[in-house]
Specification:
Helices cover 48% and strands 20% of the residues. Strands 18, 19, 20, 21, 22, 23 and 24 form a 7-stranded mixed beta sheet that branches. A 6-stranded antiparallel beta sheet has the order 3-2-1-6-5-4. Strands 7, 8, 9, 10, 11 and 12 form a 6-stranded mixed beta sheet that branches. Helix 17 packs antiparallel against helix 18. The longest helix has 78 residues. The protein starts with 10 loop residues before the first helix and ends with a helix. Bound molecules: adenosine-5'-diphosphate (ADP). Adenosine-5'-diphosphate (ADP) binds next to helix 20 and helix 22.
């Protein structure tokens, strides 16, 4: 058994070969007879042969005797050679070796070692390959050259192509006849005279032509038509059946095939009328095809015998031309791109050998096109670190003829290592055969380094992000913790407030009983010793209350709950009140307490008089407390004024023990005292100055201290106020009046108080003042009592079991329908924290009394709410009408100083009042201002403050000449007050005279 021959392995493989041969022959046959031109027709066939039959070279020579213009000459002349550029003999002499061997067989093949080969092989082909020579009848010779072939072309090779070559021979003969016709026509305008032989030959040619040809006689009857014509025009009948038919009719029938049928008919008619050769006329068909038509009139034996039409379908040729032009342009552009692109481009053949590289490739790798050509790219670029797996992958992809992308380590010409991205694309020809690879190589070394850097950066960012997140979580925890702490602190704050409120309540309630009992005892004619004990009890109680008040103040300040009122008040009223309150303490210690008010102080200022009162009271009390001998002098001056704001300086100077310099800063701190023995010696808690400082600073002021040990201290408060021209109403809180005359006789008071002791104290006080008292222990009983009988006033404790003060009051007002005018209800409260006034008013109460109550204060308020005591007018202040403190302080031991001053007042004032009236009648404002000012001097000294203030208003109105229409009333008031003052002074004068 013989071993299988290469390519013979399977039936399938043989089928493929048979298919391939027939396909080849078919393709080649299509290339025959594409033109009536001898050269064009031959070139088309040779091109097809070379391209599809593995040949390098092909040429056709034609016998010169058949060429009309060479008639009679010998040998052969070349009419076509492919490629045209190859140098081949243009003429073959009759004795040329190429012709010698043809013999009777008309064909032969030569290999390179044949002695004749060198003469036959086309010049320049070297000494390899195979040559074949073939006779085309006696009309011509065809020579083929296969450069790669080693074996001669055998008989089977020739036999397979025999029919093909025969057809080609016929086409050559036809072309020669046509050439004859054309040359006869010369200028193309003359009809061709043809002999019978020529017509026969032409008919034979026409049958085989790959162009549509139709010949008509002079009467337009069809003589010859070929199959190709029928195909072009879609005529189903075989050509021979059409002979004799009327072409004029056929023309009409087929005109609709053309895009412009009438133009087609017209062009035919034009040709027939002119009977001149027309070549290359283009006709567009309705279905988009493009035909090119030649018209050749035929003259046989001198007479016009008809004409020949030749139609060629050039659609695909035109399309191919356009496509070719397009693809050439594209190829040019691509080539430009490929050469200019920074990426490397490699084109290999099907075996993977480099055919071309661009400049980019050379830039990247350092290898030139010459160095790369014919080499597999890997041979030069591969190196130690090139990954074998990647190489294997590339080979695999190449075997599969598929596109691929990969990255691999390559080496430049200088040995430098680079990382490249390879993008490879297989290239196929039209038949789908792999012709090579094109791969694009990108240097990604930097990119990778950049990317590594980026990745590192990203990792860092990631870490930072994680850290931040962790911190955020931590912060969240902290926020929660702070929040919790804040809530706890708030809760603690609330607890503290609640505690303070309770404490204050719990202490004030028994204190009320203690102080109240002491008061009641003091009213029972105690012995002097007992009186002293009672005083001690009262003083201790007062101290305790001060402490509670201070602690409550500090708590309020610390919690930021402290607010300051902005209410107009009379500055001098307020100051005199403070002096009045402290005068007794000073007197007790044998100290002089004096006050100097600067004359330019504003009458009325806007601010918080209660807080100012508290500040000054504190400072003056301290001054008295820490001074054993000498004086305490309060001086009030007007400071700088900015717009409607004025700063007022309150100086409290004493001649006391002083404060060591080292302690001067500390005394303003909470619970700070200048000396360790202070509490023991002087009492106190060290809170007073801390509160003072806070109160002053929170109102935008400041406090200073000058002190020398053993010499005394000066505290100065600087506080800003707004100046107001509005006159304030008399304040209930500051009212002091001689209430000893106020009698509660006959009034019915309902006392609602759950604490037995307090009820006892209050009841006895009230009864002492003449009131009828019904005491009950809670709100419910109170309501029962109210339903049974009527009362003039209710004193209502707030915190009570069963029904508290608010509920009870609301019930009285809303359910029992008793109004606040019909029945005043005054609250008794020991709690100082709640914002009393609003809450109490909302519940329907008329006012409140803070426990422990000052008996005088209680008595006064009851009187006022019972309508037993008329409200003082704003100007007839309820302050002591005459305060001789100033005169006393300045008497300097002169016993008759005060009576003399009073005498002076008597002699002067009536006169001045008269003059004032005259001035008013004359509307002499400056005179009024002058007189008022003059009177103010003595009234000030005698401490007749109400009169003094009234004169101030008169002076102000007259001086400024504003609201002068008020002056008659004001001056009348001054007159009355002066009369009152003189009466009071008369009594004082008498007391002095008696003393
Ligand atoms: P308290 O008077 O209750 O002790 P303060 O805060 O009012 O508390 O005063 C703090 C301390 O400042 C006092 O204990 C005292 O040592 C000192 N001090 C205050 N005022 C005077 C003063 N006028 N003269 C001497 N020392 C004073």
């Amino acid at each position: 058994m013989r071993p299988p021959l290469k390519g013979e392995g399977t039936l399938h493989r043989q089928d493929v070969d048979i298919d391939k041969d027939s396909a080849l022959l078919y393709e080649l046959s299509l290339a025959i007879g594409t033109s009536l031109d001898l050269s064009e027709n031959s070139t088309a066939f040779l091109e097809a042969l070379v391209a599809q039959d593995d040949l390098e070279y092909a040429a056709v020579w034609v016998a010169r005797k058949y060429l009309p213009d060479e008639r009679g000459a010998e040998g052969y002349i070349q009419v076509a050679a492919v490629p045209a550029a190859w140098p081949t003999p243009s003429f073959l002499e009759p004795e040329h070796p190429l012709l010698e061997r043809l013999g009777t067989q008309g064909r032969y093949s030569l290999v390179a070692d044949d002695p004749v080969f060198t003469d036959l092989a086309p010049r320049g082909t070297g000494s390899a390959g195979v040559v074949a020579v073939l006779a085309l009848g006696d009309h011509g010779v065809l020579m083929l050259y296969a450069g790669q072939r080693r074996q001669p072309f055998d008989a089977s090779w020739f036999d397979l192509r025999a029919d093909l070559f025969r057809k080609f021979t016929v086409s050559v003969q036809g072309c020669l006849s046509y050439r004859e016709i054309c040359l006869e026509a010369q200028d193309g305008a003359r009809a061709v005279a043809m002999n019978r032989t020529a017509v026969r030959r032409l008919s034979a040619l026409i049958e085989h032509l790959q162009v549509g040809v139709l010949v008509e006689d002079e009467a337009r009857r069809l003589i010859v038509v070929n199959q190709h014509f029928c195909d072009l025009f879609g005529i189903p009948a075989p050509p021979e059946l059409l002979v004799g038919s009327d072409c004029a009719v056929a023309q009409q029938q087929s005109k609709h095939l053309f895009e412009d049928p009438e133009a087609f008919v017209a062009s035919v008619d034009a040709c027939l009328a002119a009977q001149r050769t027309v070549v290359g006329e283009a006709l567009r068909l309705a279905d988009g095809r493009l035909f090119v038509r030649d018209y050749v009139p035929v003259v046989v034996d001198g007479t016009y015998q008809g004409h020949l039409w030749q139609y060629r379908d050039v659609t695909s040729q035109r399309e191919a031309d356009t496509a070719l032009r397009k693809s050439e342009a594209e190829a040019q552009r691509l080539a430009l791109v490929a050469s200019r692109t920074s990426d490397g481009v490699i084109i290999t053949d099907a075996q993977g050998l480099t055919e071309w590289v661009n400049e980019g490739f050379t830039r990247i790798t350092g290898y030139t096109l010459d160095e790369m050509r014919g080499q597999p790219p890997g041979a030069l670029l591969k190196g130690a670190e090139t990954d074998p797996e990647t190489i294997a992958f590339i080979q695999q992809q190449e075997e599969k003829q598929s596109a691929f992308q990969t990255r691999l380590v390559n080496y430049k010409r200088n040995g430098e290592k680079i990382l490249v991205q390879v993008d490879a694309q297989p290239l196929f020809d039209e038949a789908g055969t792999l012709t090579g690879y094109m791969s694009i190589t990108t240097d990604v070394t930097d990119q990778v380094q950049d990317r590594q850097a980026l990745e590192e950066y990203a990792r860092t960012l990631e870490r930072v992000k994680e850290e931040l997140e962790a911190q955020a979580i931590q912060r969240q925890h902290t926020i929660h913790a702070i929040d919790r702490a804040r809530r706890e602190a708030e809760a603690a704050g609330r607890a503290k407030s609640a505690f303070l409120a309770n404490m204050s309540h719990e202490i004030r309630t028994p204190m009320n009983a203690i102080l109240g009992m002491a008061y009641l005892l003091s009213q029972t004619q105690p012995t002097e010793e007992q009186q002293q004990y009672l005083q001690a009890i009262t003083r201790s109680g007062d101290n305790l209350l001060t402490l509670i008040n201070n602690i409550l103040d500090i708590a309020k300040i610390e919690s930021g709950k402290i607010t300051f009122e902005k209410i107009p008040f009379r500055l001098s009223d307020m100051l005199h009140h403070v002096i009045d309150m402290t005068q007794f303490d000073a007197w007790e210690k044998g100290l002089t307490l004096a006050m100097h008010l600067a004359s330019d102080l504003p009458e009325v200022v806007v601010g918080d008089s209660i807080r100012l009162n508290q500040v000054l009271l504190n400072l003056i009390s301290n001054a008295i407390k820490f001074t054993e001998a000498g004086s305490v002098v309060v001086t009030v001056r007007r400071g700088i004024r900015v717009g409607s704001q004025v700063e007022i300086q309150f100086e409290v100077a004493d001649t006391g023990i002083g404060i060591p310099e080292s302690q001067q800063g500390r005394v303003f701190e909470n619970f700070a005292q200048a000396r360790s023995d202070t509490t023991r010696k002087y009492g106190g808690t060290g809170l007073g100055l801390a509160i003072v400082k806070e109160l002053v600073e929170r109102q935008g002021g400041r406090i200073t201290l000058e002190s020398a040990v053993g010499e005394g201290s000066i505290f100065t408060v600087f506080l800003p106020f707004s100046i107001s021209t509005a006159l304030p109403l008399a304040s209930e809180d500051r009212v002091q009046v001689d209430i000893s005359d106020v009698d509660l006789k006959g009034t019915r008071i309902l006392l609602v108080e759950d604490n037995d002791l307090n009820r006892f104290v209050a009841r006895h006080m009230l009864e002492q003042w003449g009131a009828q008292v019904e005491g009950v222990e809670n709100g419910r009983v109170a309501i029962e009592k109210l339903c049974q009988r009527s009362f003039d006033l209710v004193l209502m404790d707030i915190q009570m079991p069963e029904m508290d003060g608010y509920q009870t009051t609301r019930y009285i007002r809303e359910t029992l329908g008793i109004s606040s005018e019909q029945l005043p209800i005054l609250a008794l409260t020991a709690s100082a924290l709640i914002d009393q006034r609003e809450v109490l008013e909302a519940a329907g109460m008329n006012g409140f009394i803070l426990k422990p109550f000052d008996p005088d204060d209680l008595r006064l308020r009851l009187a006022r709410h019972l309508g037993l005591y008329a409200e003082a007018s704003p100007l007839s202040s309820a302050r002591p009408f005459i305060n001789l403190a100033f005169l006393e302080a300045n008497a300097l031991g002169q016993e008759d100083f005060i009576p003399k001053m009073i005498d002076l007042f008597f002699s002067e004032v009536p006169n001045l009042l008269q003059l004032l009236q005259h001035a008013l009648d004359d509307e002499d404002w400056p005179q009024i201002a002058f007189l008022a000012h003059k009177m103010k001097a003595s009234t000030g000294m005698l401490g007749i403050t109400v009169l003094h203030d009234a004169l101030g208003v008169v002076e102000h109105l007259a001086d400024e000449q504003v609201d002068t229409d008020q002056l008659p009333e004001r001056i009348r008031e001054v007159g009355q007050l002066a009369k009152q003052a003189m009466e009071a002074l008369k009594q004082i004068q008498e007391r002095y005279k008696l003393a």
